[in-house]
Design goal:
- The protein has 383 residues and is α/β, with parallel strands linked by helices.
- Helices cover 50% and strands 14% of the residues.
- The protein contains 16 helices and twelve strands.
- Strands 1, 2, 3, 4, 5, 6 and 7 form a seven-stranded parallel sheet that branches.
- Helix 13 links the parallel strand 10 and strand 11 (312-315).
- The protein is globular and about 65 Å long.
- The two termini are 27 Å apart.
């Protein structure tokens, strides 16, 4: 049996690699003799050493991207499709080579795959897998920015293929169906594979730690000065309460540089208050497990924390965080940069006191694994 697992494996945001590792763990556990290949959707071959970028350049890139989005959204010119098509044009041989290996199954591991940035890659894989008859399984996928009508139509067309055997989602089922599936088929609710992190990786929670982890993300979803003000107020309040803290990121150098900027504004030394950006999934997990609890932006810092029973408060910038916390029964742990700092810290204290519903998380872990394994076994999927 030959199975290819496809994801954004070598992305700088290491949560995507965690997803792939957890799905590979399920499949190897079920079929120990299977030939399993884990590949990056963009044909990257390793975690690359990242180059520091100034905040000024990041802001320039953000404005340029927003202009491309504006043109696409208002049907001036589909800049989003244009840039994505240029990228995938350099990877045609790669898609051909994967299809030619004649896998028994192709599994898209999960994450925010149904979005403009990745959908053209998905269609290139799907058209080739359809041609050679490789069954395709979309596992625990989320949806993100999707403003290019052309990209949506392309992906929608190929998702109707009979060789697409499973489409499951960890978050917005109705949005995926509305954007891509229409009345032709339904998505199935599941849960994020990264809930298995504690079983997959060689790491342990530090039960004696008193340090609060502050998970920073450079975000284009709010003015930078507002996000910076939020973090400066959090830092000030933690210092007033003599609560130790340390910043971290999920691996993206832009997030790391932004965290360093915040610390400079706060008059703090990054060598003391900021972890080096992690260069692989295990490094990220070891950083997260060194904390007693978290206040964080990135989704997979929260999913990993839940796997290791580390309480956390989410700073909402995308509804996928709210979906996750709603699923585990703690939507009240979702805050925004507009919330008072006292309310954020009070919510964190309650989260530390309450912990998680361990049985519920274990149930969700079983559901997520059994849905994919059952589909690969040819079992009928019931919504």
């Amino acid at each position: 049996m030959k199975i290819v697992i496809i994801g954004v494996y070598y992305a700088s945001n290491l949560g995507d690699a965690v997803i792939c590792d957890c799905v590979a763990y399920w499949i190897r556990e079920r079929w120990p003799q299977a030939e399993i290949d884990v590949i990056d959707i963009e044909n990257k071959q390793c975690f690359e050493k990242q180059t520091s970028t100034s905040l000024r350049l990041l802001e320039y890139r953000r404005r340029k991207l927003q202009w491309d989005y504006f043109q696409t959204k208002h049907h001036i010119r589909d800049r989003v499709y244009y840039w994505n098509q240029l990228d995938v044009g350099t990877r045609q041989l790669f898609y051909d080579q994967i299809a030619e290996k004649q896998y028994d199954a192709a599994v898209f591991a999960g994450g925010q795959l149904f979005m403009d940035w990745l959908s053209v890659d998905l269609t290139e894989f799907l058209k080739r897998f359809e041609k050679v008859g490789t069954p395709v399984y979309f596992n625990a996928c989320g949806t993100g920015i999707a403003i290019s009508e052309k990209i949506r139509q392309l992906l929608s067309h190929y998702l109707q293929s009979p060789n697409v055997k499973l489409i499951s989602t960890r978050d917005d089922k109705s949005q995926i169906e509305k954007r891509y599936l229409g009345n032709q088929r339904k998505a199935i609710i599941t849960y994020d594979p990264a809930l298995w992190s504690a079983q997959v990786y060689d790491a342990k929670k530090n039960d004696t730690s008193q340090i609060i982890g502050l998970g920073v993300m450079y975000s284009s979803h709010a003015p930078l000065w507002r996000i910076t003000r939020f973090w400066l107020r959090i830092i000030q309040k933690l210092d007033e309460k003599n609560i130790p803290w340390k910043m971290f990121c999920n691996g993206d150098i832009d997030d790391y540089n932004y965290a360093a900027y915040i610390l400079e504004k706060a008059g703090k030394h990054k060598e003391e208050y900021l972890y080096a950006y992690p260069e692989n999934p295990l490094e990220l997990i070891k950083q997260i497990t060194s904390f007693r609890s978290l206040i964080s932006f990135r989704l997979h810092s929260h999913i990993i924390a839940a796997s290791f029973q580390i309480p956390a408060i989410a700073v909402i910038w995308d509804e996928k965080l709210r979906f996750f916390y709603r699923n585990i029964g703690h939507e009240e742990r979702c805050k925004t940069i507009s919330d008072r700092v006292d309310s954020v810290l009070q919510a964190l204290q309650r989260a530390e006191e309450e912990g998680y519903d361990y049985d519920l998380i274990e149930k969700q872990k079983r559901v997520s694994r059994e849905l994919l394994i059952g589909a690969l076994n040819g079992e009928e999927q019931i919504e």
